[in-house]
Amino acid sequence: MDILDTIITRRSIRAYNNQIPEDSQIENILDAGRWAPSGLNNQPWRFMVIKDKTRKDGLARFSEYGGIIESAPMVLLVFMDKNTSYNRDKDLMAIGASIQNMLLYAHSQGLAACWLGEILNKKVEVSKFLKLSSNLELAAVVAYGYCDEGVKEGKRKMLKDLLIK
Ligand SMILES: Cc1cc2nc3c(=O)[nH]c(=O)nc-3n(C[C@H](O)[C@H](O)[C@H](O)COP(=O)(O)O)c2cc1C
User: Fold this and answer.
1) CA of 101 to the centre of ligand 1 (A)
2) What domains does the chain contain, in order, with CATH numbers?
3) Which tens digit of pLDDT belongs to each residue from 120-143?
């Protein structure tokens, strides 16, 4: 896929069938994530893969979008490692770049995904549930799987409305 095509045709997909992404695919997704740029190359992202249904359903309780987490055969939790962090704004931007790399790679491989941010309202509760060490701050949950819904048309503002003169 041409990279611009991959960027433009990627959509957030919120319902998945039962097919589980292969471990090699998951590793490639994480590779795409870890090759993102970061300020001072500090690589503040940390990743946790959850496929276990009980754990996934437990996590789902912390989000209004829990149904997406339940539907996905695999979810990826992305954290900021506060021990590595040097500038919160820049570190979160780098983590955003890492997440986008992973979304685009997944889409290029025919996988579906959805970035879930609403769960951050309960990030403290999620950390307790997962018994995470205090240096890890939840930055996003991303659901992955194979699409089981009609893909809607993407909508974006016109470029002319984004250009400041
Ligand atoms: C930071 C961020 C947080 C998001 N949080 C959620 C969320 O909690 N639930 C959800 O269903 N989609 C979430 N999304 C997906 C957006 O709704 C989606 O990207 C946007 O509507 C554009 O649609 P598209 O990704 O299909 O182009 C989030 C996306 C981003 C970048």
Assistant:
1) 15
2) 3-148 (3.40.109.10)
3) 999 999 999 999 999 999 999 999
Centroid of chain to Cα 82: 19
Ligand 1 pocket list (CB less than 6 A):
11-12, 14, 65, 114-118, 154
- Measured CA to CA, the distance from residue 101 to residue 37 in angstroms comes to 10
pLDDT of residue 7: 98
Q: Rounded distance, CA 76 to CA 140, Å?
A: 8
Strands 74-81, 112-116: pairing is unpaired
Q: If you compute the radius of gyration of the chain from its CA atoms, what whole number of angstroms results?
A: 16
Count of all residues that appear for the chain in the document: 165
The residue to which tokens 């089981």 are assigned: 148
pLDDT value at residue 1 = 65
Question: Residue 92 corresponds to which tokens in the numbers above?
Answer: 């979160």
